[in-house]
Q: What sequence folds into this?
């Protein structure tokens, strides 16, 4: 038995399991720049020598098998035998171990899922929900509904936004960039149709999914500003940081971006270039809670908003504890697989999600579903 400084038994990481859940997406869903063919989760379970289990997730549209192989073959041997409370040290070691093969992308999805599982364990070891461990007390988090594909007809788009409002959401997000991003005038008509359908009190969020250059995006934003747009997301290529800054100078619609950035270094580059009002970095890809806490602190120092992208159940406790986090995103595309992967995941009610008052993330996996899905991959 190992006794730590406070006299309690310390845990050692004993086992790492990884499961792939991939669901084909049919129906031709597309945004301005891509068609969605698959939604997949990589589910990581880290078990200690005393039988506690922590869970973490990342997601992918392609390449889940590579993430799984990296975790099982490379990351697991580096963390087995270590103390799961040492998240900072383990993160730093893994970052340097992996930095030559990727500081973004699938490599970081793998690292993020493992870090999230270690934070779940940390909460379970000290028997506290993560939001309490992080110093928060907000038990209900605002949540917005996200969908509205450019492949939808105008009627389908309006119907989905009205359905979200009927479910109690106060904020809804949809995509612009129809006809391969070649027809901003049509997009402006669609934005007006949605605004007229949902009325003046619903907050509208637009996502162009990287499709325009800065000049086109500024022109479009100034066309739709009369529709009272709360934020405009990824108006230009995510890597076009000068273009994002130019967009921000050209319109008063707040600029959101970051779902394609990784680590505190990616957040730093957006911030110092004045290329975002709302930072949407995704903790399931950008480095887990260990990195997201640093990114949240940077957004506070620059008086920006922190609104992590998607994967709401992995971000719920974090957002609860971060004062400048206005809300979380819930992707309609992920709802079905999310409901199957977790046994008891909270659902939004009237546009809010209640933070589970249980140790760690406060979630449990439906292993019957996950094992069946894993065998089918
Ligand atoms: Mg987006």
A:
């Amino acid at each position: 038995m190992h006794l730590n400084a406070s006299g309690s038994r310390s845990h050692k990481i004993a086992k790492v399991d990884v499961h792939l859940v991939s669901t084909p997406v049919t129906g031709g869903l597309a945004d301005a720049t891509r068609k969605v063919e698959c939604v997949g989760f990589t589910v990581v379970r880290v078990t200690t020598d005393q039988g506690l289990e922590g869970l973490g997730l990342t997601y992918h549209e392609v390449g889940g098998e590579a993430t799984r192989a990296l975790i099982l073959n490379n990351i697991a041997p580096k963390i087995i035998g270590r103390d799961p409370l040492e998240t900072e040290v383990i993160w730093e070691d893994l970052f340097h171990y992996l930095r030559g093969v990727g500081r973004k992308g699938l490599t970081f999805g793998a690292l993020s899922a493992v870090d999230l599982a270690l934070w779940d364990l940390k909460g379970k070891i000290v028997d506290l929900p993560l939001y309490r461990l992080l110093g928060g007390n907000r038990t209900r988090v605002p949540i917005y509904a996200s969908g509205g594909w450019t492949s939808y007809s105008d009627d389908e788009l309006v119907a989905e936004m009205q359905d979200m409002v009927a479910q109690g959401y106060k904020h809804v997000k949809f995509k612009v960039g129809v006809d391969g991003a070649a027809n901003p005038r049509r997009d402006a008509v669609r934005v007006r149709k949605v605004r007229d359908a949902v009325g003046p009190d619903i907050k509208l969020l637009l996502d162009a999914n990287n499709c325009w250059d800065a000049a086109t995006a500024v022109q479009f934003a100034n066309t739709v500003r009369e529709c009272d747009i709360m934020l405009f997301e990824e108006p230009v290529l995510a890597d076009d940081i000068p273009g994002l800054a130019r967009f921000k100078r050209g319109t008063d619609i707040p600029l959101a971006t970051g779902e394609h950035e990784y680590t505190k270094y990616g957040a730093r580059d957006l911030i110092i270039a004045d290329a975002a009002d709302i930072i949407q970095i995704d903790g399931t890809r950008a480095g887990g809670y260990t990195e997201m806490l640093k990114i949240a602190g940077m957004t506070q120092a620059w008086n920006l908003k922190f609104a992590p992208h998607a994967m709401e159940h992995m971000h719920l406790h974090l957002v609860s504890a971060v004062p400048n986090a206005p809300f979380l995103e819930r992707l309609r595309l992920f709802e079905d697989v999310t409901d199957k992967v977790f046994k008891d995941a909270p659902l939004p009610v009237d546009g809010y999600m209640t933070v589970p008052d249980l140790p760690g993330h406060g979630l449990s996996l439906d292993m019957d579903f996950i094992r069946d899905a894993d065998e089918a991959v």
Notes: The chain has a mean pLDDT of 96. Residues 105-126 form the longest helix (22 residues).
